[in-house]
Design a protein that fits this description.
single chain; 336 residues; alpha/beta; TIM Barrel; two-stranded antiparallel sheet; globular; Aldo/keto reductase
């Protein structure tokens, strides 16, 4: 395993970070989830990412159980707050002081820990003053309930505003968690340059584009049973933007590039996002332990410039570059 600093902080995290979105507490049984976490630990992964909204808090509980007995100081545990949880009452959502202060205590209880290494605003809250949100985060840091603060899917302007307030309040915003892959590069033109300037590192999700970049989806063929494209609990919706003949045909043309580098398609996709020096870690999930053991082989891989150029030529205009997509895909108001 390779380790990278998270932004300009002194915190090192495993460049392959285990994430349990859409799996723990929903798609896979708890014993399998625990096996996946233990497989991650066995291959040197020390960083684990979850969120209170995943499986409506169940994912945090599963992760807490799976990590029980591990030396806490040897782990980096991340979670998030924003989306509706619990009974979905009118204050069970957003980044108000009330929701943040109550949510951190719930997350710590479920994760069976006294603190999280990174607490993240899961989206930007358009209905709460940013000053209120950042003050709540500052208080959580001072209370020792979170060591560092980050965000997820914020625009460059939002990152700049949040970072300025964090410095005024005596802490630093150190991370951003956006979607990023060979096919989805919307952070490159604005979010990444701003983050470099501010000392913010990226922890990117969906580096294999919800499984599309593994090559398992073929033109004219029914998606494999149990795959993300067949998941009616949310996975199929997330993957739909990539499930068209043009994208799938281009992805198949990546196979010779991966083979030349002695990598699987998934390993190539994960290694590709790690070539970006503003990326601190790539989030990978798993529904089987062997997936963890395979994905971790992308750690430390250096893709030659010629191969990077070939990837760009193969994918061509199937790649989404528009930086406006960060705000276009974000909630414009708190979800009910």
């Amino acid at each position: 395993m390779e380790f990278r600093y998270l932004g300009s902080s002194g915190l090192k995290i495993s460049e392959i970070t285990y994430g349990n979105w859409l799996t723990h507490g929903s798609q896979v049984e708890n014993d399998i989830a625990t096996q996946c976490v233990h497989a991650a630990l066995d291959v040197g992964i020390t960083s684990f990412d979850t969120a209170d909204v995943y499986a409506n808090t169940k994912a945090e509980s599963v992760l807490g159980d799976a990590l029980k007995g591990q030396r806490r100081e040897s782990l980096e545990i991340f979670t998030k707050v924003y989306w509706p949880t619990g009974p979905r009452g009118h204050n069970d959502v957003g980044l108000s002081r009330k929701h943040i202060m109550e949510s951190i205590d719930g997350s710590l209880t479920r994760l069976q820990t006294d603190y999280v290494d990174l607490y993240q605003a899961h989206r930007f809250d358009t209905e709460t003053p940013l000053e209120e949100t950042m003050q709540a985060f500052a208080d959580i840091v001072r209370q020792g309930k979170a060591l560092y603060i980050g965000v997820s899917e914020w625009t460059a302007a939002q990152l700049r505003a949040g970072h300025a307030l964090s410095k005024e309040l005596g802490f630093n915003l150190i991370s951003s968690q956006p979607q990023y892959s060979m096919l989805w590069r919307v952070i490159e033109d604005e979010v990444v340059p701003t983050s470099r300037e501010l000392g913010i590192g990226q922890i990117v999700w969906s580096p294999v584009a919800q499984g599309v970049l593994t090559g398992k989806y073929k033109v004219g063929q029914t998606p494999p049973a149990g795959s993300r494209a067949t998941d009616l609990k949310g996975g199929a919706d997330m993957i739909s933007r990539f499930m068209n003949d043009d994208v799938l045909t281009r992805v198949q043309k990546l196979e010779p590039i991966a083979a030349d580098l002695n990598l699987s398609m998934a390993q190539l996709a994960v290694a590709w996002v790690l070539q970006n020096d503003n990326v601190s870690a790539a989030l990978v999930g798993a529904s089987r332990p062997e997936q963890v053991r395979e994905n971790v082989k992308a750690a430390g891989v250096k893709i030659p410039a010629e191969s990077m150029k070939q990837i760009d030529e193969v994918l061509g205009d199937a790649v989404e570059h528009d930086s406006a997509m960060t705000s276009a895909t974000a909630p414009q108001s708190r979800p009910a």
